[in-house]
Amino acid sequence: MPELRKDPIVGRWVIIAHERAKRPHDFTGEAQLQAEGSFCPFCEGNEDKTPPEIVAYRERGTRPNGPGWRIRVVPNKFPALKIEGNLNKRGEGIYDKMAGVGAHEVIIESPQHHISLPELPEENIREILWVYRDRLVDLKKDSRLVHGMLFKNVGSAAGASLEHTHSQLIVTPIVPISVWEEMTGSLEFFNYRGRCIYCDMVQQELSTEKRIVLDTSHFTAFCPYASRFPFETWIVPKTHSSHFENIPKQGVDDLATVLRQVLGKLELALDNPAYNYIIHTSPFDHQELPHYHWHIEIIPRLSKVAGFEWGSGFYINPVPPEDAAAFLRETEFPAAPTPIISQGTGLA
Q1: Annotated binding residue at 164?
Q2: Which domains are assigned to the chain?
Q3: Which residues carry out catalysis?
Q4: Helix (H) or strand (E) holding 97
Q5: pLDDT by residue (tens digit) across 215-252?
Q6: Which superkingdom, per the lineage (predicted)?
């Protein structure tokens, strides 16, 4: 069983996940993608090589854990946290710990192996976003669970070990320290100004336009003023909302367009870099918050975090966000292909 341990100095919780040491390539230097042409458990026809699916969007008449799906959600075979058990919070001298209870799921985004997310039709990306929303809505019903983080690792430099397009959801029984810091900082701004800092950022970026990558009716994508990494890009909804799982249908439709375009621009302009994206959203046990605003952070892995960054918390970014945004803005990504979907589809 994994275990959560709290750093008593800064309040950071760490997951001690013994069983993840069984994963291939652990402790052999940087993660490596599986060799070209090797077996892939995420490809259609290999459904029996993953844990049984939690949910799937599939063609009507097809059976669970068999071919005919467009998106599958399965438990991670090597979970950082497990859904079974009680939290069992306890102390050990000056230290705090609890059982590693949570959820760790894999969202397999397409049955096709050689395809990236921005190469998918927008209708299929909308379905991925709906799956994200649905899994958060379902898991927040569990009173043991407090926060859900959706993220995607692309490329070995970003921590991916499988090439097949997929993202992950890890739900924790505590609020991660980075989310807590964001919420605390935005609350301080709200208490001083009476406004949401993210809403103000969107308005300021739109007024200057120097760091805008893409702007639509519902979302603004921009390279943040204090970008930590080259070509770091945020996608922020224009309408205030603290919880991603409350996204309306028109938001999903527009976000599919924005996410595809922004990721496509990054892949085209930067020659398919490794990258991560993370959906930052509010904890389950909070109602709608006037000071916090859900958003997506996209981080191309073009530079390495080294000793100075780890030791100081400072980041050294060699590309001004104004230059990065201009370069991405001018990159034209082609229109979406035909949906990989048929009439009369169903949810299994």
Answers
A1: yes
A2: 3-175+339-347 (3.30.428.10), 178-329 (3.30.428.10)
A3: 166
A4: strand 95-99
A5: 999 999 999 999 999 999 999 999 999 999 999 999 99
A6: Bacteria
